[in-house]
Design brief:
Oligomer: single chain
Helix content: 55-70%
Low-confidence stretches: none
Distance between the termini: 116 Å
Strand content: 5-15%
Number of helices: 11
Order of helices and strands: HHHHHEHHEEHEHHEEH
Shape: elongated
Mean pLDDT: 77
Strand order of the largest sheet: 1-3-2
């Protein structure tokens, strides 16, 4: 009886091992099939992406003139490239440079932006409005060639930012500013510049503020307003104008931006005295 019982246990154990082995084989087969399907999907996706890139090159060749001369068309084209993982701005070598000159265009634009920012830095401390920068860029660029748009400038500045040179974009109210100096500005400095961009402190010209007007507008103690202004003056982004017992702080970048917006038929707003 003992031997029979032992034999039955061994049979049951054998069945259990067999089931375990079959289950393992099934799981291994499923894993192998899953890996095969993943590989096929990846290969298919790679083929589709390669096809997109090929069609993109054909499209670029066909519409070369429009891409080079039309800023809006160029913006749409660059966005389309990025959607399929192509960065035509990454290098000034290869297909995009040879066929379109896109890489060269943004490289040259970056050089022009640096040049303008350096030339204007003594008056604005390295803070220039997008409108003024575009105006100066258009004056420099040959009208026979492609004209830079705001989107082009944004992309070129993004590339310059990667160099760690202090370049970046800063939004002050509705005005986009290009910063070209490695300076840390906190929320107080940003608030001061936003007020300077939209108020006149009684002079009729945006770009001028006083300690008193800032304290009233922002609800700050005068010492806080004075401290923020002194830092911006030290960085060269604001000028001090004292006369008649009254001290004003002028932001040239905002004053010049307002002049760009002023219709030619109207006299430009009174500006700060020259240093």
């Amino acid at each position: 009886w003992t031997s029979v019982r032992t034999e039955r246990k061994m049979r049951r154990r054998g069945v259990g091992v067999a089931r375990t082995l079959k289950k393992k084989e099934k799981n291994d087969a499923l894993k192998e099939k899953g890996a095969e399907m993943q590989g096929n999907q990846l290969e298919h996706a790679t083929e589709i992406l390669a096809g997109f890139k090929t069609h993109l090159e054909v499209f670029a060749t066909k519409h070369k003139r429009a891409i080079k001369s039309d800023p809006a068309f160029r913006k749409e084209f660059v966005q389309m490239c990025q959607q399929v993982g192509v960065d035509p701005l990454a290098s000034n070598k290869g297909f995009w440079a040879e066929v379109l000159g896109v890489g060269d265009f943004y490289y040259e634009l970056g050089v022009q932006i640096i040049d303008i920012c350096i030339q204007t830095r003594p008056s604005n401390g390295g803070l220039i409005s997008m409108g003024e920068l575009l105006q100066q860029l258009h004056a420099k660029q040959n009208t026979a060639r492609q004209e830079a748009s705001e989107d082009d400038v944004r992309r070129a500045v993004a590339k310059l930012k990667g160099l760690g040179s202090g370049f970046g974009l800063m939004q002050v109210g509705k005005t986009t500013m290009v910063l070209s100096v490695p300076v840390e500005l906190d929320n107080d400095h940003a608030a001061v510049m936003e007020v300077a961009n939209r108020t006149s402190s009684g002079s009729g010209a945006p770009g001028e503020v006083t300690v008193e007007s800032l304290a009233s507008e922002l609800g700050w103690p005068e010492e806080r307003a004075r401290r923020a202004l002194e830092r911006l003056v030290a960085e060269g982004m604001a000028w001090v104008d004292s006369h008649g017992g009254r001290t004003s702080y002028w932001f040239m970048s905002f004053w010049l931006e307002e002049r760009l917006r002023t219709p030619p038929a109207q006299p430009p707003p009174l500006g700060p005295p020259l240093p």
